Structures are given as structure tokens and as C-alpha cells.
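[Discussion] Sanity-checking designs against the backbone

I'm trying to build intuition for which residues belong where. Below is a C-alpha cell string of 169 positions. I'd appreciate it if someone posts a full sequence so I can compare it with mine line by line.
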């Protein structure tokens, strides 16, 4: 019986994006209520060598769309990393979610043993589908979601664990 890899992928990523969109909206509202320039949040980072908030959202998006693409063979949409506002980040999330929703279950289910190559300009790593998803793609996705959440908490946005988890349903 094939692993229901789709269930370990699409719903999990969608829930993460739903939570991220909500805490970005809370951050925008907090900035407006407190007279803080949006750019202070968008360019904030936890440490000098880490990407700012915009980069964390972009990397979460890239991780999700490329994971699904590598598993399904479906080409992801191109997204230049030019977002510079809360609205543009929300649009990036919406475009990523639209792509994820467009991928049919049968394109992912049963691909647990498919060869997956993660290729960057500096290295290449070979995986099997399930190992790639569970050992690299999902941890990487949550790293960026968590870092974005941490940046916003550090900036004073009143977020809690349930904001991060994204609700119970």
C-alpha cells in the first residue's frame, strides 16, 4: 500500500501558511496601532547573519513549492524575492497556497521511494521522496515559519503558541 504522502505534505503546508498569514496580519495591525513603520518589522532579523522577516516568508514559500514540485514533478510558479510590504508577503503566501491547492493527490501519493535531488549552486544531495519530505523539506519549512514567528514576537507582536500552531481545526 502506498504511503499517503499527500496527507503528510499539502495539508501540513497549508496549515503553516494559514498560521503565517494570520500572524503577519497581527504584526501589521500591531505596527499600525503603535505607530511603528512597517519596514521595522519587515527588515527585522533575529541575528545579523539570518534573513529578515521578508526572507523568512520567502524561504518558507520556496521550501513548500519546491518540495511539492520535487515530489510531484509539477513545475512551481516563479516568484522573484521582491516582497517589501505586508501586502506583498500576503500575496506571496496566497500564490504559494494556490499552487499547493492545484497539485492533485495522485501526483504525490505513492512517491515515497521516488528519487529526489536537492541541487543548489554549492551542493547536490540525493533523497528518496519520504526521506526528503520528512528529513529535509518539512523541518526546513518549519525552521522558516518558526523564525518568522520569533522575529515578530521579539518585535513585541502579541502572538502565542496557538497563533503558531494555527488553531485546532
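Best answer:
Here's mine. Compare freely.
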Amino acid at each position: 500500500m502506498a504511503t499517503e504522502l499527500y496527507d503528510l505534505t499539502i495539508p501540513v503546508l497549508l496549515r503553516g501558511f494559514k498560521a503565517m498569514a494570520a500572524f503577519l496580519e497581527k504584526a501589521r495591525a500591531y505596527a499600525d496601532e503603535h505607530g511603528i513603520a512597517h519596514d521595522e518589522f519587515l527588515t527585522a532579523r533575529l541575528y545579523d547573519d539570518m534573513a529578515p522577516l521578508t526572507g523568512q516568508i520567502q524561504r518558507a514559500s520556496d521550501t513548500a513549492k519546491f518540495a511539492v514540485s520535487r515530489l510531484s514533478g509539477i513545475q512551481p510558479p516563479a516568484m522573484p524575492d521582491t516582497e517589501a510590504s505586508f501586502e506583498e508577503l500576503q500575496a506571496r503566501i496566497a500564490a504559494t497556497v494556490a499552487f499547493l491547492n492545484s497539485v492533485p493527490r495522485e501526483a504525490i501519493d505513492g512517491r515515497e521511494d521516488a528519487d529526489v535531488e536537492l541541487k543548489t549552486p554549492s551542493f547536490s544531495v540525493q533523497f528518496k521522496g519520504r526521506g526528503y519530505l520528512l528529513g529535509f523539506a518539512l523541518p526546513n519549512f518549519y525552521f522558516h515559519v518558526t523564525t518568522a514567528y520569533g522575529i515578530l514576537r521579539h518585535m513585541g507582536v502579541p502572538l502565542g503558541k496557538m497563533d503558531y500552531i494555527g488553531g485546532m481545526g
